[in-house]
Amino acid sequence: MNSSDDSVAFAESVAGVVDRVAPSELTAALDDIGWPTLAQDPDLVACAGLSAVQLGRRLAPLHQVDRLLGGSPMAGDLVRSLGPERMVLMIENGRVVRRSALRCEELSSAAGLEVHRVLKLGEAAPVRTDEWQTATIAWIAASVGYLAGLGQGALDLTVDYVRRRRAFGSTLAALAPVQQLLAGAATAVRGVLLLADSLPDSDSLAYAGLAVADSCAACHQVTGAIGFTLEYPLHRFTQRARVTATWNDALLEWMLKAPVSPDPSG
Questions:
Q1: What is the pLDDT of residues 194-238, one digit of tens each?
Q2: With contact defined as beta carbons under 8 Å apart, do 8 and 45 qualify?
Q3: In the chain, at which end, N or C, are there fewer CB atoms within 10 A of the end residue's CB?
């Protein structure tokens, strides 16, 4: 990887924060170490990918990634991570605007998401083009990194399990088919991690979702029935990876491909 010392150090700080603080205090604690600044300074966006790996690996709420944009991006009338700020983002007349969600209804969603249908919005506040461009670079890198973290978390659980579980006179880890499946999954996750550390583009994000979802499926295949039980946490990584990938594909349709007019005031 091409990780700088600063990127690695900041990622370690993020990991320490998530391990140390209660979920209700996570946003404030990440703010204290400068998480939002990664999307505000072009010189810092390179830190976003590796840092988000630590968020995904620890199943932190996806809102921590989306708030790098300064609000939660909408797909149609749905928003996947409406945080306490209750700010949403959309494109109107070729420009990105930010609105407050004045009224919405919560929908059933996977753990770690806060999916809402927005029913009423506040006044539109245009987002400066340079601000949006920097934020989306950080968001893409963080989104790829988050997926890599989910894949790595699933692998960590699975490798530990197959090393301890015995079958056919040996551990599962000693069986060639298991080794082949996990080697393929580990290679795919490693590839996504490398992408996260290289300022990935939208195509990389689209690829990362499928690669990590497939890697999680391989983990389920080698763990067998226990991997699908609620008591065993593997399903949390798999579910989060699949829904995150699906939402990312929907958001990419407008976030990264729709034209954004120059901001006359910026």
A1: 999 999 999 999 999 999 999 999 999 998 888 788 888 999 999
A2: no
A3: C
Please state, in angstroms and rounded to a whole number, the distance separating the CA atoms of residues 261 and 73.
Answer: 18
Structure tokens at 237: 């990584």
Both 105 and 207 in a single domain? Answer: no
Reported as a single tens digit per residue, the pLDDT across 134-189 is 999 999 999 999 999 999 999 999 999 888 887 777 788 888 888 999 999 999 99
CA distances from 33 to 15, 40, 93 (A): 11, 14, 36
Residues 186 and 266 in one domain: yes
Range of the domain at 249: 1-61+128-266
Do 48 and 76 share a domain, yes or no? no
On the question of pLDDT at 266 being above 80, the answer is no
Sign of the alpha-carbon dihedral angle for 147, 152, 153, 155: positive
The per-residue DSSP string of 52-92 comes to HHHHHHTT--THHHHGGGTSEEEETTEESB--TT-EEEEEE
Q: Are 135 and 69 in contact (CB under 8 A)?
A: yes
Residues 68 and 40: their CA atoms lie apart, in Å, by: 8
Q: Nearest CA to 227 among 178, 194, 169?
A: 178
Q: What was the pLDDT predicted at 260?
A: 52
- Encoded tokens for 80: 């996947």
